[in-house]
């Protein structure tokens, strides 16, 4: 019957092209009607034939998505299926009613498919301006969950209808509801109300309160995004909607609903496993690029290959737990202070380790990427990169003394000073000294000299994307950045001036073996001159050397060449340590989420140990490696007294690194003559020679009495060339550490 209907149409379609008179149109309308009728009958025939003869397939089991590290080691299984089947009489009545109220209010009235509820859902959703009700009945959802994959195709929708009718024919309404409540996905790997009750509330389903039942029922729409672990406000909002619907439909009284709406949600806490913040980051990055994968990520059996180094990740978490200051809970019940660590391979931008907070089960905010904080003096790495790249030799001095600059807002003045007992050194400091002790006044003077725009330009080049205020306080870390940005900037210096994009996902394969995404590290972009990167690295190595703010951290890394910078903001509210070796760049941040309370120390004492112990252990299997001297820089002996290149009578000298085109002049003093003259009078030499006796204070060191240190580069000059052997004093032991 349908066969003749469709074949007889063909020639007429051609005729219609030629003549469009009224008679032919009428004939057409009649024909269309017949065809529609025939199609409908065919559909009904096939549908009921399938309902009668197609057996229900065995339930399809959702597959866990697996996440691997760079060596193919399993980091995590996302949402492993986790079911505990309980009999219907152990499921609270409130649970059943809550689900019916929100998902399928006519459940006991329809035959599996409910045209009325579809119309009602459309009406309610339009009225509310958002999805408050779904059109699928409980039986339809059960058919979908048990037998079908998450794809949204016409064929799938058709089969769903067939299976729905078959379920209704085979089982009673109560059996269908029990089956549904035992198999429904409720987030965090929990299938069924029993596992969900334990996952969220740490108790069996039979002990759930009315409010808890309503909360679980509210999750069905979008368990991952509505999860109270991720979004308490939305979970509570949804719970209250369910309670209102229950009251409206007569399952509970208005008073019961209002009372339950006031109940506080008490969560049990998620179990701990390795790399949870990183896993979140990977899933978020994947969904940002492929929003269509939402279903598959959670239950479609994807294989995600990542850049993580599981060994380093475990070290990071262990070190983080051991060296974080003791925790106390804030008003929201979140442990404080919080912190983050992120480590990057400088040559590729691959993220090797990521810690986003002190305990994932307590707080899921990934501070490594989501927290913008003032970096304090850690931002000076951009300032001094700009200064060095502008051509200033590192022997150039600025005097630390009272001075004011325009502030962050018009009319304000900014008066930088060092922290501690003595606000000023009242002495000239060269760039190496200023970096090592993190002098604020000298930094502000340099910032004013090169200009905030220039500093911001270098920060941008080195990968900082956060908004930056163009003013002098910027150079001292007033604009907020993320730990990932700081780690990335360190990677630029570590790699000799090459910038890479941070990358976490290498490859994603779906359950059929199809490659959904394949990423290669992006080719590095040269953003800094190699000589500039080398000189800045040399300066930052002094931070970890004698007299530097990170002096206590240097020994943790042994003889491994490493560079770093401390950062502490006013009143010790934020503490940073950022640093690197040629093989690994890492940023560590510690502070209260809302900066409510000061930390028990500085960047060097709070964040520094986490950084140093992580780096030492993470690189334990990597041989120490030094940076190669680029062709455009040179190590040369410098007169201790004048900071100029050593001349014939400059016996007090040390090695310093310069760009070949920006060398200071040769010292023109005759120190032999000076010696005899000085015996009768005071020395008038500038600079921070070891003799400088002033007792002043270093900014980040946090101690009250730091003399101007004798900061000499730790590097042994690799190729002294013709000067070799002439300057035995170059390895002179540094003065004792200031305390
Ligand atoms: Zn100073
Ligand atoms: Zn000299």
Structure keywords:
739 residues; alpha+beta; Beta-lactamase; five-stranded antiparallel beta sheet; 26 helices; 24 strands; disordered N terminus; binds zinc ion
Strand content: 5-15%
Number of strands: 24
Number of helices: 26
Strand order of the largest sheet: 2-1-5-15-16
Task: List the ions, cofactors and other small molecules found in this model.
Answer: zinc ion
Unreliable spans are 1-19, 682-707, 714-739
Rg (CA only)? 35 Å
Question: For the terminal residues, how far apart are their CA atoms?
Answer: 100 Å
CATH-level-2 architecture of the largest domain:
3-Layer(aba) Sandwich
> Which fold name fills CATH's third level, the topology of the largest domain?
Beta-lactamase
Per CATH, the class of the largest domain reads Alpha Beta
Sheet/helix structural class: alpha+beta
Could you explain how this protein is built, in words?
Helix content is 39%, strand content 13%. It is elongated. It folds into three domains: 2-53; 62-73 and 275-626, Beta-lactamase, CATH 3.40.710.10; 84-261, Penicillin binding protein transpeptidase fold. A hairpin with a 5-residue loop joins strand 1 and strand 2. It has 739 residues and is of the alpha+beta class. The termini are far apart. The strands form nine sheets. A five-stranded mixed sheet has the order 2-1-5-15-16. One zinc ion (ZN) binds next to loops.
């Amino acid at each position: 019957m349908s066969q003749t209907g469709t074949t007889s149409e063909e020639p007429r379609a051609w005729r219609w092209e030629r003549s469009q008179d009224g008679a032919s149109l009428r004939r057409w309308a009649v024909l269309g009607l017949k065809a529609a009728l025939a199609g409908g009958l065919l559909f009904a025939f096939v549908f009921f034939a399938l309902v009668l003869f197609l057996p229900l397939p065995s339930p399809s089991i959702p597959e866990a998505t697996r996440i691997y590290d760079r060596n193919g080691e399993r980091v995590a299984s996302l949402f492993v299926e986790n079911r505990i089947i309980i009999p219907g009489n152990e499921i609270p009545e409130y649970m059943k009613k809550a689900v019916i109220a929100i998902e399928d209010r006519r459940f006991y009235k329809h035959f599996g498919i409910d045209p009325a509820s579809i119309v009602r859902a459309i009406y309610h959703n339009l009225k509310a301006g958002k999805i408050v009700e779904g059109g699928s009945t409980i039986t339809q959802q059960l058919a979908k969950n048990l037998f079908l994959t998450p794809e949204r195709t016409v064929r799938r929708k058709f089969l769903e209808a067939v299976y729905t009718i078959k379920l209704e024919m085979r089982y009673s309404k109560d059996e269908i509801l029990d089956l549904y409540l035992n198999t429904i996905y409720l987030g965090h790997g929990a299938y069924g109300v029993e596992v969900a009750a334990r996952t969220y509330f740490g108790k069996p389903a039979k002990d759930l309160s009315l409010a808890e039942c309503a909360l679980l029922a509210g999750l069905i729409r979008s368990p991952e995004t509505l999860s109270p672990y991720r979004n308490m406000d939305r979970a509570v909002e949804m719970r209250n909607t369910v309670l209102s619907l229950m009251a409206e439909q007569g399952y509970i009284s208005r008073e019961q609903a209002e009372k339950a709406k006031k109940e506080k949600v008490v969560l049990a806490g998620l179990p701990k496993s390795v790399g949870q913040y990183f896993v979140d980051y990977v899933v978020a990055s994947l969904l940002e690029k492929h929003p269509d994968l939402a279903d598959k990520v959670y239950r479609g059996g994807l294989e995600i290959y990542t850049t993580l180094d599981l060994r380093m990740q475990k070290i990071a978490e262990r070190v983080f737990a051991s060296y974080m200051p003791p925790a106390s809970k804030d008003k929201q019940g979140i442990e404080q202070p919080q912190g983050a660590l992120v480590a990057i391979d400088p040559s590729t931008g691959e993220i090797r380790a990521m810690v986003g907070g002190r305990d994932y089960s307590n707080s899921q905010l990934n501070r490594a990427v989501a927290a913008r904080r003032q970096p304090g003096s850690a931002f000076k790495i951009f300032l001094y990169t700009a200064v060095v790249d502008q051509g200033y030799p590192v022997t150039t001095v600025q005097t630390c003394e009272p001075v004011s600059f325009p502030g962050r807002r018009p009319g304000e003045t900014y008066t930088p000073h060092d922290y501690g007992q003595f606000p000023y050194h009242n002495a000239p400091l060269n760039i190496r000294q200023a970096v090592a002790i993190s002098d604020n006044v000298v930094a502000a003077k340099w910032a004013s000299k090169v200009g905030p725009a220039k500093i911001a330009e270098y920060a941008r080049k080195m990968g900082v994307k956060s908004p930056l205020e163009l003013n002098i306080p910027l150079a001292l870390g007033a604009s907020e950045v993320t730990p990932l940005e700081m780690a990335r900037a360190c990677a630029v210096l570590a790699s000799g001036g090459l910038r890479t994009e941070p990358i976490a996902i290498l490859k994603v394969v779906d359950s059929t073996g199809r490659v959904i995404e394949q990423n290669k590290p992006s080719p590095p972009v040269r953003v800094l001159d190699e000589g500039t990167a080398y000189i800045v690295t040399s300066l930052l190595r002094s931070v970890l050397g004698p007299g530097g703010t990170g002096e206590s951290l240097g020994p943790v890394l042994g003889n491994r060449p490493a560079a770093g910078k401390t950062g502490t903001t006013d009143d010790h509210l934020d503490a940073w340590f950022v640093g690197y070796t040629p093989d690994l760049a890492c940023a560590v941040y510690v502070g209260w989420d809302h900066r409510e309370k000061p930390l028990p120390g500085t960047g060097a004492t709070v964040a520094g140990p986490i950084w140093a112990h992580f780096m030492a252990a993470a690189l334990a299997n990597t041989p120490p490696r030094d940076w190669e001297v680029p062709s455009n820089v040179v190590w040369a002996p410098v007169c201790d007294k004048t900071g100029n290149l050593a001349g014939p009578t400059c016996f007090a000298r040390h090695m310093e690194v310069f760009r070949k085109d920006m060398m200071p002049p040769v010292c023109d003093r005759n120190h032999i003559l000076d010696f005899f003259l000085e015996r009768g009078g005071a020395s008038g030499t500038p600079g921070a020679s070891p003799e400088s006796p002033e007792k002043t204070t270093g900014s980040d060191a946090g101690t009250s009495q730091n003399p101007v240190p004798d900061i000499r580069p730790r590097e042994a000059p690799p190729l002294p060339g013709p000067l070799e052997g002439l300057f035995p004093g170059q390895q002179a032991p540094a003065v004792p550490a200031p305390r």
